[in-house]
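Can you please make up a whole protein chain along with its backbone structure tokens because I've never seen that pairing?
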Amino acid sequence: MTSFKHRCPITVRPSDLDSLGHINNAVYFTYLEMARTDYWNHVFNTEREVRDDIILARAELDYRAQATNDHDLNVAIRVSKIGHSSFEFRYAVVQSETDLLVAEGSSVQVMFDYTNNRTIPMPEAVKSGMLAFEGPENISTPKRNDGA
């Protein structure tokens, strides 16, 4: 867990549970969304702006252990890759008290122009903010093709 510099605390609500008292598998994706918003607000100190230009392209999650309403959770989140117009988040959902890994996954976000319905290049301010927070050695970035 040392590679994650940001954690989002999650309080499990009764409505998050399935009929067996476990956190419903679909609810975890809401937790990831909460973590993305929390990460963005923490790293960029903003509620909106560039975040309006992002669309979720892919999300996946592997479940490792059961969790119930007896377990408050943390979603550890980090940027693992930055591309020309996209970036990848990695997640580790852990029990707050024990750090037991409950689920892990990733998502791909794409910079998107909603007016023209097309992808756009990653703004330099977003890229540099992520690199500054995570450390450039911790993020995979594309190699330049211009011989530089």
Remarks:
- The longest helix spans residues 27-44.
- The mean pLDDT is 91.
